[in-house]
Fold Small ribosomal subunit protein uS8.
Amino acid sequence: MYTDLLTKIKNSQAVKKESVKVPYSAMDLAILELLEKHKFIAGVAKKGRMPKRILDITLKYENKKGVIQGVRFLSIPSRRLYIGYKDIKPVRQGYGLLVLSTPKGIMDGKTAYKQKIGGQLLFDIW
C-alpha cells in the first residue's frame, strides 16, 4: 500500500539512509516513477523474481536534508475522496505535488488538470 511506502521513505530520509527496499506492487512502482519524475527521489529499480520481487529506492538529499519535507494522506481505506478536474488546486503554492488515481493511471494534479481528468485523491507531498 502506498501509505506504508511513503512512510518508509520519509522515515529513512529522517535517519539519512542511502536507499530503502520495499515489496513490489504495480501501484507503488507507478507512484515511485512519478516521484522520480518530479525529483522527490533519486531513483527506483525493480529487482528480483516474482515471488520475492522488491523495489530498491535511492533517496535524494539537498544540503544534508531529505527532499521530502512532508506527506499528507487524503484518501484512507474508510474514507475515499474523489475530485473533478475543475477542483484541482496547486499544493503549497506550486511547490508541492498532488497525486491522483485516475482512469488513465496514477498522475499528478497538474497533468490531470491539463487532460481534464478527475479521480481519487491519494496524497499531497512537499
Summary: DSSP finds three helices and ten strands in the chain.
